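Can you give me the bound-state structure? Components:
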Amino acid sequence: MRRRVALITGITGQDGFYLARHLLSEGYQVHGLRRRTSFNGSDRLQNLSDTLNEGGSLTLHHGDMTDQASLIRVLQESKPDEIYNLAAQSHVQVSFEKPAYTTAVNALGVVHLLEAVRLLGLAEQTRLYQASTSEMYGVAESSPQSETTPFRPRSPYAAAKVFAHHIMVNYREAYGFHASNGICFNHEGPERGETFVSRKITLAAAARRLGDKSVLMLGNLSASRDWGHAADFVVGMQQMLQQPHGDDYVLATGVARSVRQFAEAAFRVTGIDLAWEGEGLDERGVDRKSGAVIIAVDPRHFRPSEVQALIGDASKAKEAFGWEPRISFEEMVREMVESDTARMRKEP
Ligand code: NAP
Ligand code: F7E
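Here's the bound-state model for the whole set.
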């Protein structure tokens, strides 16, 4: 039987790593789109090309979502059965600093990809997944959020993703594309980018465990998110493309926690019991035992407009293809702190 062929844009990112690993374990031939950078050695990429590519089933291609010709070339070279569009300028705060670039990649990039598929005549044979996001709900009208909750985006990142979401639906309706949006709530893991709050916290917890006394500076401690593990979410992405028709599905755990609670869980792994003192800009997370200040607030991490709380309802995905997260929040946080500790021990 012919092996299924997948193309993953954003393969060098967190989800790209977990999805490539999952698809390779399912016997896929995997192609990945990567940008040329001056720095050639990210851990994830190294891991992908060394460990995961033992059977020669992984091929990386240079390209960029803003360069449609490069997408056309990669599609011609890979002829995928399934495309997972994970590429994005994915940092919400950075999107306020680079709104036009974020729109070019996250919104227009999706049009470049869809049109390339259409013009190359691949629409019949190729199924598409788009990385939609809970950020699209913004100041959500109701809780928990599902596929029918209206979008009220609060950042250039979210506004661009709303466009991408709708253009996927449009190609489904106009041209019969098998096109699906996975509306993913936050998902983390040891491969998470280091400037997202989860990884910032687990890196700081690991560093303190190894003797570092720096205070961790965070922004909005009250923000609340529905945090799951990326390894669970990529399974749902693949399952969406095995359905008879393209559709939109929420992937979420259904439990929300604050940034404070994330920090408490991470420092607990290292034996520190956090207590909170003061309010607003003067709030501090302190070690209950020693009184040492562990966390403080830096307003530079506040966003011009914030999404205060998100929590998802993934019952449609559960009903359609049995998707449910398997890894608990506590297990995930422990894995992240232990992984960061092990990496720091290796490379002090
Ligand atoms: P990530 O770690 O930031 O990875 C983003 C990927 O996109 C990287 O491989 C990056 O390449 C690539 N990329 C950025 N700009 C590009 C461009 N112009 N052309 C080609 N590739 C480009 O993000 P992630 O956490 O894996 O998220 C994957 C996708 O899911 C993103 O679309 C994100 O917006 C969306 N999403 C994520 C979450 C979450 O909680 N993780 C939730 C909902 C939706 P470099 O390595 O070269 O930077
Ligand atoms: O922020 C607050 C911050 O940057 C989470 C992306 O994958 O998930 C991610 O976007 C919350 C926000 O993730 C800091 O204000 C406090 O309320 O980790 P984050 P995000 O913005 O939720 C969604 C679903 C995506 O689609 C995105 O691609 O934490 N927060 N203090 C902080 N955030 C950061 N980054 N740094 C802080 O110091």
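A couple of observations. The mean pLDDT is 96. The longest helix spans residues 99-119.
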